[in-house]
Write a structure and sequence with these properties.
Strand order of the largest sheet: 2-3-4-1-5
CATH class of the largest domain: Alpha Beta
CATH architecture of the largest domain: 3-Layer(aba) Sandwich
Largest sheet: 5 strands, parallel
CATH topology of the largest domain: Rossmann fold
Structural class: alpha/beta
Shape: globular
Number of domains: 3
């Protein structure tokens, strides 16, 4: 088996290969055809194609001149004002030596840039607009200052649909000679939550154990519990069987290596499946949110999750 991560091996090289973002791809193809484009802001959750779309766009525009025409930086690593005044400004001020009259600077995870760096970038984008285009990738567009957003055409990427994730999983399985059970595919869709990178990493991890991929292997490699196990724990708590619920919880955290926040996220996803009144579901969501905040603030996860299960008994009464 090759050592290259499948997230890179199966990354689309051109806009035609991108799945799940038809409207955005259609607009980007228009830029390729015109050999011109504005500054762009790609916003959306992780693993849905923002970086891939940028690289594919650049490859389609520049072709064999890609390397000398594109500067790619990860703003979460290089996030200070010195980067904007140094690397970015030096690259932006140089004139393109190819037929396309501009170069591209891609700032991945631009929402990690400091406020000072974003304000400095605003002026740089204006000064070199004739020779350089900027593409900003961000998980949270709200963390990009308004002056930068107003200088960009904003594209909001959506999580991938189930059929898109399933289609790529089946293609990878065929290429890698894997037998993936239908339940395993459903498990990959469940753990990915529309994030193709997460799905491919889980599939590759499971494939290390053998060519037959099962549902159990997927959940184990993704550090996620089967939804039924989460529901059993929650129902035990709602039925007043606190000791059983606590045993389920400890088994999950030990067997799957789940963190307290992982458990809370899955509990939140399973609230809809519980056979309780709507008002009780609302109260449960409120409590899950409260205890998630406690974990984020650094509280002991075992104590907090068990305290949440105790709240289930109170709500049931």
């Amino acid at each position: 088996m090759e050592l290259i991560p499948w997230t890179e091996k199966y990354r689309p090289k051109t806009l035609d290969d991108i799945i799940g973002q038809k409207n955005i791809v259609s607009s980007l193809k228009g830029y390729v055809k015109a050999r011109n484009m504005p500054n762009l802001l790609f916003a959306g959750p992780p693993g849905i194609g923002k970086t891939t779309a940028t690289l594919a766009l650049a490859h389609d525009i520049f072709g064999e001149h890609y390397n000398e025409s594109v500067l790619e930086l990860n703003a979460s690593d290089e996030r200070g004002i010195d980067v904007v005044r140094g690397k970015i400004k030096d690259f932006a001020r140089t004139i393109a030596l190819v037929q396309v009259p501009f170069k591209i600077i891609f700032l991945d995870e631009a929402d990690a840039l400091t406020s000072d760096a974003q304000h400095a970038l605003r002026r740089t984008m204006e000064m070199y607009a004739s020779v350089t285009r900027f593409v900003l990738g961000a998980n949270y567009s709200s963390k990009i200052i308004e002056p930068l957003q107003s200088r960009c055409s904003v594209f909001r990427f959506q999580p991938l649909q189930e059929e898109d994730v399933k289609g790529l999983i089946e293609r990878v399985a065929k290429t890698e000679n894997l037998k993936v059970d239908e339940k395993a595919i459903a498990a990959l869709i469940y753990v990915s939550e529309g994030d193709m990178r997460k799905a491919l990493n889980a599939l590759q991890g499971a494939a290390m154990a053998g060519s037959h991929i099962t549902e159990e292997e997927i959940f184990k490699n993704a550090s996620r519990a089967h939804p039924k196990e989460i529901s059993q724990m929650m129902n035990a708590a709602l039925e007043g069987k606190f000791i059983d619920a606590r045993k389920h919880l400890r088994d999950l955290m030990i067997s799957y290596g789940m963190s307290g926040e992982d458990v809370l996220i899955q509990m939140f996803r399973e609230v809809d499946s519980l056979k309780i009144p709507e008002a009780s579901k609302v109260a449960l969501v409120d409590k899950i949110g409260e205890y998630n905040f406690r974990l984020v603030e650094g509280a002991n996860e075992t104590i907090q999750i068990e305290a949440l299960l105790a709240q289930f008994l109170v709500l049931k009464k």
